[in-house]
Structures are given as structure tokens and as C-alpha cells.
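Note to self: keep these together.
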Amino acid sequence: MRRRAALVVPFSAVLLAVSSCGSIPEDWKTPAFMQGDEEELDDRLPTVTGEIGEEPKVEFPDIPPPDEQVSGVLEKGEGEGELVRADDMILAEIVDYQWTAKGETEKTQSTYETGAPVLLELGQMGEELTGELVDQPVGTRVEFVFPPQDSEEAQAMGQEPEPGASVSIVDVMGRYGKGDTVAGEQTNDGGGGLPTATDAGSDEPEIQIPEGDPPEELESVRMVEGDGPEVEEEQQLIVQYTGVTWNDGKVFDSTWSRGGTPATFPIGVGQVIEGWDEGLVGENVGSRVMLAIPEDKAYGGKAAESGSPEGALVFVVDILGAIDSQPAEEQPAEEGEGGGEGE
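Structure:
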């Protein structure tokens, strides 16, 4: 189906531990996380300076790394809109260090250097990790210090434990939440031999199929004109979408059927159906686009053999974001995330 961008940073080791064990390891917990705007930060945290949106400078205290997790909100953002929610997806810049002993540190990775921020799905993370992020505005900077990973737990996840503590500075650069849609005014409902979909506000759009045969070529209708940057090949898209089959107009896949949680996937690299790769690359972030996709650019004549929808398809897609991403790693096929994320 698709491949997700890899998060190959120490912060991901914590996410893996949470997802595999169901909770954060007991020896990683600290009695209380320190909130930067409520009380002084734990003095075991490295000092971080610099503007949000630029790689920070980090100075480590002249002590051995702590043997428990400590964290704190270093700077509260001034981002507009709603605060980060527990089930949001956030766009983050992350800088990581390995702190092996007193006076011994090494920067291991920086998304500022790679030019590829990461998407973190907070609903898949434990409260111990999201506690510092939830209810913060975009533009917030948070620091985490994680103690050495237990060797048995690391081996169970197929990893080699790193010596010493790992330090992650997380800058919250954006958020995407359930039910999010593009903000612009819909000026085109389709029609003229193509399907129609009136503006449904924050609800799932209803796509009406006209009488007659589907188009033989890919047709694209820009329903909301976005003013963001153009979508480029190899970027990671964040979208809301609904897909119906032309022959009966029935919904076969929709982010709305999954609670309105936006979907994310790479575009222009053959990880989605051809109609998506051709129809969305070059569109602007913030646009709503209707795609009428002929069978040969959907799942093809053998769609039924793989359990995919047959014939021509129609999608309404809200392009919420497009980001550069880390090189993708092959992942097992995911069931039930269809239309826009096809083979």
C-alpha cells in the first residue's frame, strides 16, 4: 500500500518502546515533569538557546547524564489557532544528542540539517511523552532527556541500546487535527459532465455522480484555491479525502470514516494510485481538489483480484500540508486505508 517516512532519531526509540510495551518503561519515568512556564526547569536539563525555526545551540551541565527521564517546556509558542490536542498530528523539527558521560556528548541527528521535519501522531504516543506537548501552541519548544534504554527491551525491538542518555529538542512547527479542512472559500462545485460536491463545511463532502460515462483522461477540478506552496514530488502530503466509485457513487474510502483524522503519505513516487500522483503534484497547499480518475489510472482492470474498488473513481481531497521527508523505508501493507493510498 504505502511507505511512511522513517523517524530515525532517538525520539523514535521512545515511540517504539511505548508502542511495543504499551507504556513507557518504569525506569524512564520521572516523578514530575517540569513545566517551564509554571516553575523553574530541572537543572539537569541542558541549556538550549536560539530562535524557534532555527537549529538551537545546546550546552550540557557539568554532570553525568540523569538516570531518569526529565523534560520541560523551554519556550511557549505564540502560534495562532487551537492548541495542540492529544489526538493531533504535529509537524516537528527535532535535534538529538547522545549524552554518554560527564562532558561527553555528540549530536546524532538534526532535522534542521536534513531539511526534513517529521510528523508525530500524538495518539500513538504515551501520555508521558505527550504531556509536555498537549495544550501548547504552535511554536513551542520542548526538551526531553531519556535515560539509557534497557538492553533486553532494545533487543526485543531488534535494536542495539545506545550508551548514556539521549536528548531531544522538539520544536512544534505545525499541527493537524481531526476534522481539519482547508480554510479557503469553495468557488467551484464541479459539474459540466463531471461530478459535483457542494461545500460541506467541516463535514464529509457528498459527491454526486452525473449520468453518462466517466472521462477517459484524468480530470482535475480546483474547488478551493489554496495559497500555500506547490506540492512537489517526494513530499509527504497531509490530507482529508473522500473517494467514491463512478458506477454507483458509493463511498469506498474516506478519512472521515476514521474520525476525520488526516492521512499522510508520499506523493509522486508511485506509492499511491497514478491519478493521485498526477493530479496532486503541482497543486497548492490549502486547495480542495476533485479528481475524476479513469480506471487505468486508478486500480486497473484487475482491481477486484486485490480487493480494490473497480472502474473509474472520484475523490475530493483537501491538501492540508506538504512537507519534505526522510527517505522512506519499506513497511508491511496496511489494510483499510484505501483510495488515495493505493498501489
